[in-house]
Structures are given as C-alpha cells and as structure tokens.
Amino acid sequence: xxxxxxxxxATVDQVVDILRTDGAVIVENLVDVELIDxxxxxxAPFIDATSMGPDDFTGRQTARTGALIERxxxxxxxxMNPLVLGTAGELIGNKIQIHLTQTIAIGPGQGAQPVHRDxxxxxxxxxxxxxxxxxxxxxxxTDFTEANGATRVMPGSxxxxxxxxxTHDETVxxxxxxxxxxxxxxxxxxxxxxxxxxxVRIAGNITYCASWVRQEENQYLSCSRxxxxxxxxxxxxxMGYARGAYALGYIDDLRDPIEVVRPDxxxxxxxxxxxxxxxxxx
Length: 282
Fold this sequence. Notes:
- The protein is an alpha+beta fold and 282 residues long.
- Helix content is 23%, strand content 18%.
- Helix 1 packs across helix 5.
- The longest helix has 17 residues, at 33-49.
C-alpha cells in the first residue's frame, strides 16, 4: 500500500479523510522553499550545537533540536499553517495544542529507527480505536529520499494492535520534495529511515495533540517569557496559554493563563483556543 499524495490546494476534508483510512498522507509543495530555507538558517546554530541521540531509538547520528517557537520565526509560520491547523482540529477536535516542535537531522551513517507509534509516549495508554489524540507533521526541510533517510510509514496500520515487532520491510518511504509535509496520526506505525548518503537529512517535526493531555515538549519553559510576550494570541493559545477544557489550566483566582505573558489579552470565561484559531475554507 503506497502513501497517497495531495497537491498544495488540498482541503482539510481531503487530508482528514485519508488520515482516517491510511493514517498518513503527503501534501506536496505546501509552502515555498524560501520559508523552509529561512527556518533552516534560523535553526542552524542550534542544530549544530545539539548533541547526537543517546540511544538507538533517538539515533546516535541524529540531532533532535527543539524549542522551534522560541528560535525560529519561520517555524512559527509553519506551526500556524491553515491546512495543518484545520486538519489537526478536525481530526482531534477543536481544542488542540502544540505537543512538540523539533527538527530531526539524520546524519550520514544513521541506521533506520525502530518502527513505533508516537502515541506510545503516553505510557501506552489504550486510547479508543476511533479516537485520535495526536495529529503529526513532518516538514521536508531538505528533499526526502529513500537514500537519505526519509520517514517510513505503514499505511493503514492505525487499526493494528500494539506490537514492537514490526519491521521496515512492512513500511513504505515518504519521499517528497523540500517544502512538502507528511501528515500522520499518533496511531500509525512509522520510523525514521536510514541515511546512506554523505549529507544530513533535516525534518521539521511539529505535532499537535488534544488540549487535555500533557504536552511532550514543555512549551512554557521551551519558549522564554520575553519571546512569548511578542507572539500573537492564536499562537500563544495553541502553545497552551489557554484552558484545555472547562477547568484545565487556569491560574490562581480562575484567571486566563495568557495573562502571565500578555496581560492585555486575558478574558473572563474559558479563554480557550477554539475561538481564536481561524478555520480554513473546505
């Protein structure tokens, strides 16, 4: 089963429909390569300073660099891409938040990552088969090829039971040009590929989750207060400066958490992100 591909004018409904059946889909050339090049340039000093992974899962020749909201204006734009936000909101539900932001720079000689599910990060909690707690994106910040370690996916695997024994022979390669994005759910089996070239493959991994679960990357500490104070309301809400449900995430005297960094934006009531993220046309 091959990965389905859509063009940059794809609609939210098209992306979500494929995610529900296949667990993954590629949207080719969704953003201009200039935006991707800007992101890579902004992040290059941080990627260069990042230590390689400490084990085979994170990758001993792989640098995983986080705090993209803090470090890159271009990544803030990627995070708020209308098609991505619309897809995540439709798949998960309207109340979503950023789960993690990172670049994954797979260096020459890095072997393939073990096949896994991202929602295992929640201590293997048995989410219902029809419930999606995550909507994930992998942005191609360099061209993705089979040779340089493009992400590998098992389309349709979201309905399979938990199993640590899946192999790369069961996966297909998410080859795509720079500026494209791979959408995939937290349930689908996937992995990073093996880099058999002499160049680094860079991906932008920006993941969204339900607003009532704990984020994998702590956005409040990953993004400094000084930077947070300059960010627009919709991005701050998405980072978690909002109530995740009726009574989750308020501060002290039932105040809107956004008041910590933007006192001018505090509202009475829920103060959640549902009303602040624009819905793209279908």
